[in-house]
Here is the input.
Amino acid sequence: MREVAISRPSDNGDRPAEAAPPLAGVRVADFSRVLAGPYATMLLAELGADVVKVEHPVHGDETRSWGPPEAGGEAAYYLAVNRNKRNIALDLKHPEGRAVARRLCDRADVIIENFRPGVADRLGIGYEAVRRSNPGVVYCSITGFGGADRPGFDAVVQAESGLMHITGETPTKVGVAIADVLAGLNAAVAILGPLHRRALTGTGCRVEVSLLQSALSGLVNVAQSALVTGEEAGRYGNAHPTVVPYQTFATADGEITVAAGNDGLYRALCHAIGRPDLAGDPRFSSNPGRIVNRDALIAELEAVFGTRTAGEWTGVLTEAGVPVGKIRGVLEAIRAADQPATVTVAHPTAGPLELMRTGFAVGGYTPRRDPPPLHGQHTRPLLAELGLTEAEIGRLEQAGVVRQAPDPPPPPPLPHSTPSTPSAPKESR
Here is the structure.
């Protein structure tokens, strides 16, 4: 196989520097699967990195089969965390597949993998092997439990980390794979620091992220309180251990959450609901007192909130400057968001496809809007970029080492107004 310099897609064009993608020119080789790694690489892609997602040519990323629901034959789970990437279907267990992977690694600025400990080394793409030929690489390993050879599944990590212990009325898993999401965020942040140093000095390093450590660090004040007191953390359901009132309340037709995070907000709450006597009651005048007398205060507030609807109380408390919100369903929350929560992309098999936005925006820069790739969608062009001839690519395809997805029909054009715009006026909040 002949050696050539790999090209990198450019988003810059003739745009001014401040409008260029922050990570333009950065190549990410993504050997991760499922959620934490793909979420991290999607965040890097959102910042303009060229992410090449590597999948097995037969079964691919497990999340491709984690449906229904599906759109255009792709599982919603996979669609959630893989936009703005290119895709190569490559068998890493085959010697020639490993040789292709090494070429990709040698030309990458960042490598992300979430193999079980030791697997990347056996495949010849571990950190020590890669850095000998690519000393400036930023190499990120995501594991479930650090060095322990245990499969890292979010539900198990939530149990082992204490997250499940402090959630719900009985030990309850958070409704989204929060340990994976935290690990993905940690990985993206941890990669950006060494990338900056690499730009200045040319040196790389290894970044290690675990789901367990991400979950433990995500306990923040709850963990610190346990360390300070030496006592096991309690479980408060929809209430707060150290701020009162900061919880849900039933109204005449639904539930709301009230967050009176300081004494001033508590007094404003009492006056807004027509109970100024509660503000003057010495048992409740300070937050430490409200913690000690939590049950008595909450009983008084519950009686008041049950007299009016959620919409009425939301309007009253918002007008008074008291933090309050309705408990919404997921789809309801997306449609009610103050700013558009979704973007629409032209997916090759699903057509116009609504996807969730990331939680940040970088001023002056509009991210690409490429749909999540089909399995093996970019295999042939990527192999050509890596220097393989048509004959070599054909031979690898024939041997099952690589796979190119069939060309899909052109997607229908995007609508002028995307579904991210609510179809009805938002209610007063």
Notes: Residues 44 and 192 are 9 Å apart (CA to CA).
